[in-house]
Amino acid sequence: MIRENLPALQVVIPLMAAPICILFKNGRAAYGIALAATLFAFGAAISLLTQVLGVGPISYELGGWAAPWGIEYRVDYLSGFVLVLVSGMGVVVQLFSPASIKREIDEEKHYLFHCAFLLCLTGLLGIVITGDAFNVFVFLEISALSSYILISLGKHRRALTSAYQYLIMGTIGSTFILIGIGLLYMMTGTLNMADIAARIGPVATTRTVLAAFAFFTVGVSIKMALFPLHLWLPNAYAYAPSVVTAFLAATATKVAVYVLIRFTFTIFGEHFAFEETPVATLLMPLALIGIVVASSIAIFQKSVKRMLAYSSVAQIGYIVLGVSFVSVTGLTGGIVHLFNHALMKGGLFLAVACVVLRIGSDRIDDFAGLGRRMPVTMFAFVVAGLSMIGVPLTVGFISKWFLIQAAIEKGWWPVAALVLLSSLLAVAYIWRVVEIAYFRKPPEGEDRITEAPVSMLLPMGALILATIFFGLNTEATAGVARQAAEYLMGAVR
Amino acid sequence: MKYLIGLGVTLMAVWLLWSGHYSPLIISFGVASCALVLAITHRMNVVDNEAVPVEITGRLLIYLPWLAWQVILSNLAVARIILSPSLPIAPRLIRTPAGQKGEVGRVIFANSITLTPGTVSLIVNDNEILVHALTQEAEDDLQSGKMNEQVIRVEGNA
Amino acid sequence: MTSEFALIAAPIIPLAAALLVSLSGKIPNLRDSFSVLAGIILFGTVVSIVPDIMAGGRPAFTVVEVMPGLALGFLVEPLGMLFALVASGLWIVTTIYAIGYMRGHEESNQTRFFASFAVAIFASIGVAFASNLLTLFMFYELLTLSTYPLVTHQRTDEAMRAGRVYLGILFTTSICFLLFAVIWTWVITGTTDFTPGGILAGKAEGATVGVLLALFAFGTGKAALMPFHRWLPAAMVAPTPVSALLHAVAVVKAGVFTIMKIVVYIFGISFLASTGSNQWLIWVASATIVLASLVALTKDNLKARLAYSTVSQLSYIVLGAALANQAGVVGGSMHIAMHAFGKITLFFCAGAIYVAHHKTKVSEMNGIGRQMPITLFAFLIGSLSVIGLPPFGGSWSKWFITMGAYEAEQMIPFAILMVSSLLNVAYLLPIVFRGFFLAPKETSDDGHVGHVSDHDGPSPGIWKIGALREAPLFCVLPICMTAFGCLVLFFYASEMHKMLLPLGAP
Amino acid sequence: MKRHSVLRVVAKLFLPYILLFALYVQFHGDFGPGGGFQAGVIFAAAFILYALIFGLRTAHKVASADLLRILMAAGLLLYASVGIVTMLKGGAYLDYNFLRHDPVHGQHLGILLVELGVGVTVAAVMVTIFFGFADRKNR
Amino acid sequence: MYAVAIVSVLATMFLAVSRAFAGPTVFDRILAVNTFGTATVLFISVYVFMGGRPDFLDLALVYALLNFIGTIAVLKFLQFGNLAVGGEDEGGLDS
Amino acid sequence: MELILDMASWILIVVGSVFCVIGAVGLLRMPDFYSRIHASGITDTLGAGCILGGLLLQSGLTLVSVKVAFLLFFALIASPTAAHALAKAAYLTGEKPLTRRGKSA
Amino acid sequence: MDYFGLYNYWIVIFLMMTGFYIVISRDNLIKKLIGLNIFQTSVFLLFITMGKVKGGTAPIINHHFDTYSNPLPHVLILTAIVVGVATMAVGLSLVVRINEAYHTIEEDDIHLVEEEP
Ligand code: NA
Ligand code: NA
Predict the structure, then answer these.
(1) What domains does chain G contain, in order, with CATH numbers?
(2) Residues in chain C with pLDDT < 70?
(3) Which residues share a beta bridge with B119?
(4) Number of domains present in the structure of chain A
(5) Do chains E and A touch (3 or more CB pairs under 8 A)?
(6) CB of B34 within 8 A of CB of B8?
(7) Of the N and C termini of chain G, which has fewer Cβ atoms inside 10 Å?
């Protein structure tokens, strides 16, 4: 019973858990519920991915209606992979959260946090699992609305303005996406992605479909904070509660990228997307400029969260770059970096969350001497940071490897060179923190600072271990990513 | 109680008119809905003579056509003003006596005043209404007291 | 102990040492014994592999396969064997010396120092035994990272600045060029394994080979090929044992080792020579040899002078590799060891002089030989070996490199090698001359010249017997050992040559 | 000055019909363009009108925050549980055919319950949001 | 005929929007928005008849309702700065 | 009969449309807030009333017509109420009406 | 319907631009939200006026029973409206809290307040 309905339960369980959290209105009970639901989602995701790897893509008809009319949930290699990523990060963040939100969120709002978190998770999982274009929009909004709430829970009042700013940008983005979907519906008369893909052929060259693609691309670029549409992100990440930042950074923008990949490769088809439209000539330069500019801005930030936020903008550039190669290797690189970046950026933000818990600030200067005071946390930061730079043994290296391989395969030397150069920018901003944390004397009287509690260190440690593990064993990441890439590239032909 | 029953009957009638589906299921939904509405409005404490003017309904129905005619007339008058290039208005504030005994009556009077363009009721007091009138004619019409009397008649002796 | 076991044990030993050192930070004697002990065990372990290699064995061990054709693994071959021997052997002496130096100098953060030191050796062993480019690259970067705390040990603004230059150049070159070259190689050949005869033959041609070689050569910033040599003099702010480690033991040797290894096992010397792409590298190396020597002449600061000397000497090795023939490759490889012993002796001496007299400038060293005869005598031996005069090790390696240039009919580099030796004489021997034969200057007597020092009196452990004023025993002992090593290597050169000969096999 | 008689009387007059209209929309969802959402909005609108005219305190007496919270959650749960029940009965998620022996009845019931869940939730959420706004200055 | 109605309703909406922008007082704007709302209700009604989907009339009704309540709410907010006060004893719009 | 009803409904719709626009024009032309209320009243009463009345005739005696009737009923009560509330609020806030022409009261 | 079918796009585009313009040009946070709402509304309008979908399939849902029709566009608009309302609600509640925190809802003033300390 559970097994055959897993695709539905994947979304329904966290969705149901959210109102139960409200019902209890008690932080602790809500935590238990949220954790249980998240764990379930993780288990379901893993089970689904294993099924897909075994027997190929799964289709599930919601309400038992046949695909074009009813809503279809569809799990293929890519979505299975991203499902595992999102729910896995959910578990890590949930395990991490109690101690962190205790400091950063008012006690009476804890249940709200868990509720919004579950809704956000629901939305993200829904986006990934659904095979219905309009459903994507609905889930996109569920996750977006709950993330506005999550961000606004931050202690600083600027969390409010940041959430507001994000709301404006996010709504414009999703409205664009909605227009794109609506136009597609108009031209094909269906909302089922596979169905649209099958019917788009004869109308592909019409202006309406071009407009649909343009609207869609702009909208999703806002959602994933592709440079220069990233302006909402730094503030949102900087002022949100630390766990929220970690979760959003690891999942939300990633899922937006998923939507981009899904639509361009499954619905429009890479031929249309990259040859009929000027998207290719636009996406890659934007990605590259984004990588360089955002990384450079990151170097000059005073707040570590902000710095990492700008780094995220840059990293999205890498993922989009991978996609814009339109080759199996490039797409593999993009997909695998989507996963890898989630691990390391999640790890970095969790480390910052530990620091914020203890010193109540994320200013770089306040990190002085933390290398000794919070050795585990800072070690985690360093490892994840090295991964961000792309040092071997870490996942970051694997991503860069693929991206550069893709560039070399295509003979795009400057691109390869730029990717490598940008690693140096990463060195610069990561190293600033490391230098201060390890090599600068802490201010007087800061002896009370101790290591973060084990309940936070363990989930963070898990991410860091994953950062290294998947840097050594790439079968589960690059292997699946390649399968997904081949499937995506081949599915259209 | 009188009002509750009156409201219940009206609600059910309205439901049937709206619905158009007369299967037992839907009708039972209708009954349940009416009951729920009654319960809620009762809890809200809004079921009284003001909400359910059972006593005056009949006379109200006679008043309405007259009011409609007044509305048309005043509409024409104001429309003429709007369309004339010189915009011949002479706005003024006036007090007009309101002889109604009950709130409902006074409200009907005030709304009737507003409903006829050319006059707008501003403040409703116990025995008079402050009105903004657009022209001398509108003022004269109102001050003739016809509408006041008509509404008093609607109110009856209740 | 089988070679495979030794191969697995070799990296683990320094790693364990790093752990033990950090844990025993509160008890300095225990901590330092761990360091020394680990050094001895490691050296023993490495030596135990030698017979197998001499017999043609190639012990190997794969840790994990990251992607198909992309693994993390170890394999011992003659060149790596040599480098491992040098690194592990000199670790012992350097550790002993560092103990004396750090204690004599009452340095802070000694635990971190020795722990980083052990990690650096771990990385060096990893570089030495790497079985493929990926593994090599990884340990290469780890070596950079682990030596950063050493370079910036003083924590002064100057040190931090130097640290940034150090990281900046090494990371920039390795990430932008070396990594690029590694991935490119992989894309071309589908492998990164070091294979006798190279892997590029038949897969790459024309300009690609030249560009790849450039990427590898300049990507290996640790080889200090001009114009990417700046980090080396900058890193001189570090305490002297660190300089010794950088120059003689681990860092720069890892650089030239990498170039040598890539030339031999990735390009393959016959393939490289056949393409002619090595020509430009010969010229760059030759130019670096001369230019760096000239710069060294102008430096008054002793460590800076030695640093530029190193830049120059490293290019001998690169030149040997670039010649791409048997004599050049073997000679270059031998020079890794020969220069290591010579240069470490020189640095030890510089450090000893600093510890005992707080003198850093060549111009202040008049008459110092009278106070520190042992040290200065060792300095002389080291200088002679670096210059390449018998009966010291350096003479052999330089001989082979020169032969290589001759065989390759590279007459101008051949001439440069000759001239360069004269330049070596010019910047090294005057120091000895000053020390022994010139009268000390009045002003520089009481030791306030050293820019790092805030000591008023002599540091603890300084020998003072009459006019003698030598550095502590822990400093002097290693100096004697390495100076003696220069001599010993002269006589063991044939063994070394025999071991390295397979490198030149076509 | 006297109370605002016009608004009060008109509101009293309208309220029952607005509420009824909401329920009408709620239960005719499967025949026309109706459904839980609009019903919820209309229901909430009625309540908001009540609160605007008769004051927040009075409105709170009619529907307390706790009641709203429970309704909110209950509606969502109702929605989701219908799906769970269909699964328990062997169908796919929200496959109403499995709700009853007779599929037509099953669909009726399924849609009805789901819409009801949505309606209750939407109404509760809207009112809560309104209270959230209106109440803030008082805290 | 519907077209005539649609066009004039749209014209009405346009004029109302102009007044909303012109102001000058906030009450002018509210009035304009209210008129715009009435026009919208009419628009929906006519459009629904035109398209042959009179089911959608409910939409017009809902819109009218919301328009009314919205106007009251905004007025109250204007008068008191919030929506909290009001009612028989607190004197809201009722005062 | 059908034809007459149709005719009547069309006439109503056209008349309503005209009054709608007249009201809106007045909304623009009138010099102050209070006089604008009268203008908007035209749209709200005769404009809306006629158009909805026309639609009512169009739909004949069906369920649809019931809905239109309700809409009409609601509009005719809600609009004056809203207008009154607005005027009262303005008056209480101190918004001064123009009296006669151009002079303030 | 044809005479209307052509220029509905222009109305949609006009509304969209208006909304967008308000969002970017206004300082007042509430006005921005109103602009956003207009922006969204334009899309609903687009959907409503989209009319008959090209090649639209008759939405008979179940192969066994044709009891229910599936008015798809209607559902879309409706859902989109729900989303719009929810966005408004969250946005407004944010503005209320911003007003409490900064005592202003003018963006410029907020920036000023932020820069002070
Ligand atoms: Na991110
Ligand atoms: Na995000």
Answers:
(1) 7-115 (1.10.287.3510)
(2) 1, 247-249, 441-469, 471, 506
(3) B133
(4) 1
(5) no
(6) yes
(7) C
Is A485 a domain residue?
yes
Per-domain boundaries in chain D: 5-138
D6 touches chain F (CB under 8 A): yes
CB B37 within 8 A of CB D19: yes
Interface B:D, Cβ pairs < 8 A: 83
Min mean pLDDT across A215-224, G29-38, G95-104 is at: G95-104
- Whether there are 3 or more C-beta pairs closer than 8 Å between B and D is yes
E and F make contact (3+ CB pairs below 8 Å): yes
Tell me the pLDDT band of B29, cut-offs 50, 70 and 90.
Answer: confident
> Which residue ranges of chain A lie beneath pLDDT 50?
66-68, 492-493
Q: Closest to D92 (Cβ–Cβ): which among A5, A16, A20?
A: A5
Q: How near does any CA of chain E get to the CA of G49, in Å?
A: 10
Tell me the pLDDT tens digit for each residue of B55-89: 788 888 888 899 999 999 999 999 999 998 888 88
User: Quick one: which H or E segment has residue A59?
Assistant: strand A58-61
Q: How far is the CA of A44 from the centre of ligand 1 (A)?
A: 24
pLDDT score, position C247: 67
Test G4 with E51 for CB contact under 8 angstroms: no
Q: Chain A contact for D83, CB < 8 A?
A: yes
- The pLDDT of residue A492: 40
Averaged confidence pLDDT in chain D: 77
Would you state the structure tokens that stand for residue C195, as one six-digit string?
Answer: 């294979």
Query: What tokens were used for A207?
Result: 């202006």
How far does the centroid of ligand 2 lie from the alpha carbon of residue A313, in Å?
10
C392 domain-assigned:
yes
Which pair of tokens denotes residue A90? 């959910």
Helices within G26-106 (DSSP H only) = 29-49, 72-102
Q: Which residue of E has its CA nearest to G50?
A: E51
Distances (CA, A) of E65 to D44, E40, F87: 11, 12, 20
Q: Which domain holds residue A451?
A: 278-493
pLDDT of E92 above 60? no
The average pLDDT across D3-16 equals 84
Specify the pTM: 0.79
Q: Which ipTM value was assigned to this complex? A: 0.74
D-contacting chains (≥3 CB pairs under 8 Å): A, B, E, F, G
Grade residue D99 by pLDDT with cuts at 50, 70 and 90.
low
Helices of type H across A56-157? 77-104, 110-129, 133-152
Q: How far is the CA of A246 from the centre of ligand 2 (A)?
A: 10
- Is E50's Cβ below 8 Å from some Cβ in G? yes
Which chain D residues are within 8 Å of F77, Cβ to Cβ? Answer: 10, 13-14
Number of domains in chain C: 1
For the record, the structure tokens of A186 come out as 């108009």
